[in-house]
Amino acid sequence: MEHFSTGRLTAERLHEAHLADLVALHRDADVSRYLGGVRTPEVTKTYLATNMAHWDQHGFGLWTLRTQDGAFAGRAGIRHILVDDVDEIEIAYAFKREFWGLGFASEIASALTDFGLSHLELPSLIGIVYTGNGASRRVLEKSSYLLERSTIRHGEDVVIYRKRR
Ligand SMILES: CC(C)(COP(=O)(O)OP(=O)(O)OC[C@H]1O[C@@H](n2cnc3c(N)ncnc32)[C@H](O)[C@@H]1OP(=O)(O)O)[C@@H](O)C(=O)NCCC(=O)NCCS
C-alpha cells in the first residue's frame, strides 16, 4: 500500500524527495524531544536510506503525511524493531509542531493499526514511548494498546504498549 488516505491525511511511501521535509522535522527540538534528540541533516539522510530499504525488504514501512491542502504534516508507519533481541513491529508517528493537538496522530494510529493487524495479519503491534511523552501514550491508549512493561532503551525510560490482533 504505497498510498492511502484517512479522513484528513494522505500518506505516501517514503522516498528520496522527502529528505528536505524530514530534515526540517527532525531539526525541531520540540518534535525530537522524545525521539532521541535533534538529528543533523546527515543523520536524517541515513535515516531515510534505512527506512527506504525497509520498504524494499518488507513491503511496508514509513509514509509521509500531507494535509488536504498538500502541506507536509509529518511521518508515520509500522516497521520492524529489535526489542531485547526479539523482532517486533512498532507503530511510529511524528508531526510538525503546528499540527499537534488536532487529532492527526490518533487518526493515523487508528489507520496503521488496522492496516497492520487486519490487512497484514500481524499477530501484534507495539508502541515504544518515552515514559514522559503523555500525548503519545494517550494516542496509543485511544487505539486500545495496552501497557505491557517499562524498560530502559538507549539510556531512556520507556514504556511498551501492545495491541494484539
Ligand atoms: C505525540 C504526537 C504524535 C501527538 O500528536 P497529536 O496529533 O497532537 O495527537 P492527537 O491530537 O491525536 O492526540 C493527543 C492526545 O493526547 C492528549 N495529550 C496532549 N498532551 C498530553 C500530555 N502532556 N499528557 C497526556 N495527554 C496529553 C490530547 O489531549 C489528546 O487526547 P484526547 O484526544 O483524548 O484529547 C505529537 O505531539 C508529536 O508529533 N510529537 C513529536 C514526535 C513524537 O513524540 N512522536 C511519538 C514518539 S513515540
TrEMBL record:
InterPro entries: Acyl_CoA_acyltransferase, GNAT_dom, N-acetyltransferase. It holds the Pfam family Acetyltransf_3. The keyword Calcium does not apply. The keyword Transferase applies. GO terms for molecular function: acyltransferase activity, transferring groups other than amino-acyl groups. It comes from the Bacteria. Residues 8-142 form the N-acetyltransferase domain. SUPFAM superfamilies: Acyl-CoA N-acyltransferases (Nat). Keywords: Transferase. Gene3D superfamilies: 3.40.630.30. This is GNAT family N-acetyltransferase. The lineage of its organism: Bacteria, Pseudomonadati, Pseudomonadota, Alphaproteobacteria, Hyphomicrobiales.
